[in-house]
Design brief:
The protein is mostly helical. It has one domain. It contains 5 helices and 2 strands. Helix 1 crosses helix 2, helix 1 crosses helix 5 and helix 2 crosses helix 4.
Length: 114
Amino acid sequence: MLDFVVRTAVTAVALWVAVAILPGLHAADGRALLLAAVVLGIVNATIRPVALLLSIPITILTFGLFILVVNAAMLALVARLVPGFTVSGFGAALLGALVVSVVSAVINGRARKV
């Protein structure tokens, strides 16, 4: 349970950074960001594995870069499900997924060293 709370907090911070630096992402308030983080965690745990499994051939052809497209699709799906959290288009979702991934990796890397 504590692991889920920590992962959700890290995802919320990563989404906040993405919303702050990317013009195509918008969150109405902190509650929308927190709800988006929870929904993104649920989507990544349920739908993303199926999408990754179905996209194995194209992922191999693109040397793994297609995973970023899958992540962008998951972020766009979250934007459709969460009121107050919007993504203006696929480009914004792609950049947002990249920012969320990098910020999450940096925070998780720092947390392991402490």
